[in-house]
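Prompt: I keep going back and forth on a fold encoding question. Comparing notes only helps if you start from a blank page. Show me how you would write down a chain together with its backbone fold. Please set it down just below, with no commentary around it:
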Amino acid sequence: MSNENTLDLHYVHQSFQRSLKEEDDVVIEAYIDGYNELVKFLNLIGSVFSFVSSDVKSKIKVMEKHREGDDAIYYESFKKMMKYEKETCLHEKNGFVSGSRTMLRLHRGLDFIRLFLKRLSDSDDTVNTCTTCQCSYNETLAEFHPWYIRKAATLAMHALPTRPDLLKKIFGTEDRLTEAMTILPQTLQSCDEVYQRVEQLYTDFDFHGLP
């Protein structure tokens, strides 16, 4: 994994590619590896999404416990996890922290990150990053946040730097930025494929509405 001050898209791409299992499943460990790197994006763009980043860390800790526990075999992949929790009704059990519910939160976060990154890459240096971020947020994560979080997040986005400054903050030197822009399409494609697979699994198991 790269250092904490820059985002390594190559690592994200490799991890997400490694997570693709068979035709319709996603390996949880590889997914989390890629996600852990990708979530640096939230930290690097400033304090706007620090609440999301902090929530992600707590969710990943939950999954680590599941993957190290007595039922670890059922938490190797999304499909296996959902099948296990559905058949045993664990997702409805009081006091049990459902892995499917936990990963649903990460899944929603991935939707925002991939959309914002794509729009940043597709735009030119004159684009207003605040507007781009707000539109991406409103189309993804905002739906699942209470109004006061939506309000605070939307206001905080006004502090986002210009596109050139934001990209430099995310990727570091000019050379690293050039390299990142070269691999970004592949990384976004991996993000999309992983996202769509997981989205379909939540649909198949009727888990989109987990509270």
